[in-house]
Specification:
By secondary structure, the chain is an alpha+beta fold. The chain is built from 5 helices and 5 strands. The protein has helices at 12-38, 46-49, 53-65, 68-79, 97-103; strands at residues 89-93, 105-106, 111-122, 128-139, 144-150. Strands 1, 2, 3, 4 and 5 form a 5-stranded antiparallel sheet that branches. The protein is elongated.
């Protein structure tokens, strides 16, 4: 009989150590996951506010892109000759992700609100034409997010 197939071999110690290492790895992974979830900046009480903070921010960004104030601004710039008829405007919230998450506030009746600057540029170009104030509100009762841009001269 060869040495590798010998019945006298002591392989149980190695197998036991392998199982202990696997168990310790799983415990460590669970601990790290629990810490990460607890310190997640996007964590929010979805039941109290109607939608998660992350979903609210995504809906706000989408709403800013398609706000009627952006369409109004496009018409004004085209009439002034500063924008060609085939060009369109693009609006993007100018705050860094950390600032954006910290700017989100809860509404007492349930929901979210956000006020942040938005960069306005021509679609496909990197140059910023200017900044406008952006406001987003999620109303839990209506179940929708309303996004607006603050045009110059508006209050």
């Amino acid at each position: 009989m060869s040495e590798l197939t010998s019945a006298n071999r002591h392989g149980n110690l190695g197998r036991t150590l392998l199982w202990v290492a696997i168990l310790l790895s799983l415990l460590l992974l669970g601990f790290v996951t629990a810490l990460t979830v607890r310190n997640n900046p996007y964590y929010s009480d979805r039941d109290a506010n109607g939608v998660s903070k992350y979903r609210f921010l995504e809906e706000c960004k989408e709403g800013i892109h398609s706000s009627e104030q952006l369409t109004t601004l496009k018409g004004v710039l085209q009439q002034a000759g500063q924008l060609q008829p085939n060009q369109s405007l693009h609006a993007e919230i100018a705050a860094e992700p950390r600032q954006l998450v910290q700017s989100v506030q809860t509404v007492p009746s349930g929901g979210w609100t956000l006020s942040a600057p938005a960069n306005i540029s021509i679609q496909g170009q990197t140059a910023v034409l200017g900044q406008l104030g952006a406001q987003c509100v999620y109303d839990k009762a209506q179940g929708r997010t309303v996004a607006q841009l603050q045009l110059p001269g508006q209050q």
